[in-house]
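Batch job 17 of 40 flagged for manual review because the log was empty.
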Amino acid sequence: MATIDDLKKMRLAKLAKLKKLGADPYPGTIIRKQTIAKARSGGNRTGDGRARSR
């Protein structure tokens, strides 16, 4: 079983990899693509009721 130090090292390595790839792992803002009302009404569904993929 991994120790807490091992887990911390793995998480920091993953964080470094994300940053190297240009991803912001902790963005200050998000881009909204739809309203909550539309999401609740199923506005992102296909005609057969399945969720539409991005």
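Reviewer: the log was empty due to a logging misconfiguration, but the result itself is present. The chain has a mean pLDDT of 84. Unflagging and moving on to job 18.
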